[in-house]
Amino acid sequence: MPQKIVVGYDDSASAKSALEFAASLAKAQGGELVVAHVLEWSPYSFLTPEELEERHKRRQEELKRAETALLKPAVEGLRGSGITVSTALKYGHIAETLCTIAKEAGASQIIVGRTGHSALSSRLFGSVAGSLAQASPVPVTIVP
């Protein structure tokens, strides 16, 4: 059974490095990739029903843009590599959602890029990589 690798992807330089690393690993192991993008959102809001409906419409538009602008080019870049590639696009807390995607896909590993936030901002707001390292059900590789 081929190994599945979930790659957190946001089109940043570090995400591109993570995708390249994951692709080389998948190719060497005969594995599959799940290129995942998570749109972060806050579940806390005090909106009217009309505002909630507008928010839902905006989310659908953001999902379409993310599919077109981020995931589709990433998958096209892997065309011809011989690697089986699928995508996952969801809203939520980034680290928690990547863990959910890994569980749903039956992945054996999650690979993400390091964003390079300052130590202060990481202490204040946490980091995706740090949260994944603590909560992931599978090994996590952080690519610089």
From TrEMBL:
CDD domains (UniProt xref): USP-like (cd00293)
Pfam families: Usp (PF00582)
Source species taxonomy: Bacteria, Pseudomonadati, Pseudomonadota, Alphaproteobacteria, Futianiales
InterPro entries documented for this protein: Rossmann-like_a/b/a_fold, Universal_stress_UspA, UspA
Family: Belongs to the universal stress protein A family.
Record organism: Futiania mangrovi
Protein name (database record): Universal stress protein
Segments forming domain UspA: 1-144
